[in-house]
Amino acid sequence: MFIKLELHGIEALVLFPENYSDENRYPVFIGLSGGGQSHAIVQFSAVAYFNSEFFKDYIRIIPINSNNHNFKDYSSDDIKDFIEGIRNYFNVTNSNWAIAGVSNGGKAAFNFVAQNPLLYLYAASFPGGIFENEPNKEWSHLRIVLANGKKDGDSWLLESKATYEKLLPLVSSIEIMVISGQNHTISETYDINQIYSKLFQNN
What we know:
The chain has a single domain (3-200), classed as Rossmann fold. Strand 1 (3-7) and strand 2 form a beta hairpin. By secondary structure, the chain is α/β, with parallel strands linked by helices. An 8-stranded mixed sheet has the order 1-2-4-3-5-6-7-8, with helices on both faces. The chain is built from 5 helices and 8 strands, in the order E-E-E-H-E-H-E-H-E-E-H-E-H. The chain is globular, with a radius of gyration of 16 Å.
């Protein structure tokens, strides 16, 4: 069950691994919701998009925009402060984190990755993209999946395709998915593990 905590001034829903112990170090999964990332949207997203068994051994953290500062608009310093809040609160690893985002959260997810690529191993957006970020050799280990609903707007589909083309020669693996019958927001009835499973192929 997700519980609500405050991390460095940011409220977040947090789900611990089974048999969690403060003495052990854990990787972190960050889930960034879409829209305005209100408490209601984050609660919905936590269950619909960010509760995958693929990350059952991670500390799952789903932040809430409780200060009218959308995560897609976070500066490099804002992102550093948020990550530092996680490090100060939990005993976490220094690498192999995972991040996923929906729409605005999908844009934010790659902003977070760009700020510290070596912190992450997995990144997923549905939808999202790198937008203005410039990837470099520090992205080379990353495993990435970009998913869009087939009925989504052209701009989001084009961003995913542009991101795919830019990252394909740079990262360890990347998949692009266009999901039939889905709109901009993936339905809560869709099996989100079909997206996450692409991250773990050939691991």
